[in-house]
């Protein structure tokens, strides 16, 4: 079902995000999958970016697995590899909870442990069984849409970031507000600015993401099959 057929959803305008919602089974588990997402840099409000998460919470979803493409800051990360979020740094300059409080949900949720240890443990086990290399690290979120400067990447590295991207953190914050159990995985599509010789392009991000899609799919299926 296309997003634009659902009231309140904004159809993504970025290449590589098809903007469809699928309901079915993955690894034998009932699952809702959003193919693509809307981004803050598209000129949307944070409430529009995170609206799908509030829909999932209202639908009764209790567990959320977020995925994205990211630039690798950690020197051990190679393009095409995956990183499981251990934590995040929000440098988007905005918070999706800013404004009027949503119903009975706290506007001041604790963010000590956004990414659920139990879900992360299952994902790590799934990676081992599938013989997939899976890093664990800190994701830094920026608003985009321009890529970061080498100086910014050096600063993010000193602050403890292992990867950088332009999404995911707003959704994780709202999911945490709704008491959803959250896990998140990045596909490292390139070395961040100043860490490689190649010029950063969206086309290269899509190319590496596509080539890594089968690996990511195998991990998600294994995770779903062993989720309890």
The CATH architecture: 3-Layer(aba) Sandwich
- CATH homolog superfamily: Nucleoside phosphorylase domain
How many structural domains are formed by the residues?
1
Which regions have little confidence, pLDDT < 50, spanning 5+ residues?
1-7
Strands of the widest sheet, in order across it, are: 3-6-5-4-7
Strand content: 25-35%
Q: Mean of residue pLDDT?
A: 86
The major β-sheet equals:
5 strands, mixed, barrel
**What class, by secondary structure content?**
alpha/beta
String of helices and strands = EEHHEEHEHEHEHH
Helical residues, percent: 25-40%
Amino-to-carboxy terminus distance: 28 Å
What is the CATH class name?
Answer: Alpha Beta
CATH topology: Rossmann fold
Task: Give the strand tally.
Answer: 7
The coarse silhouette is globular
Q: Rg from C-alpha positions? A: 17 Å
Q: Give the number of helices.
A: 7
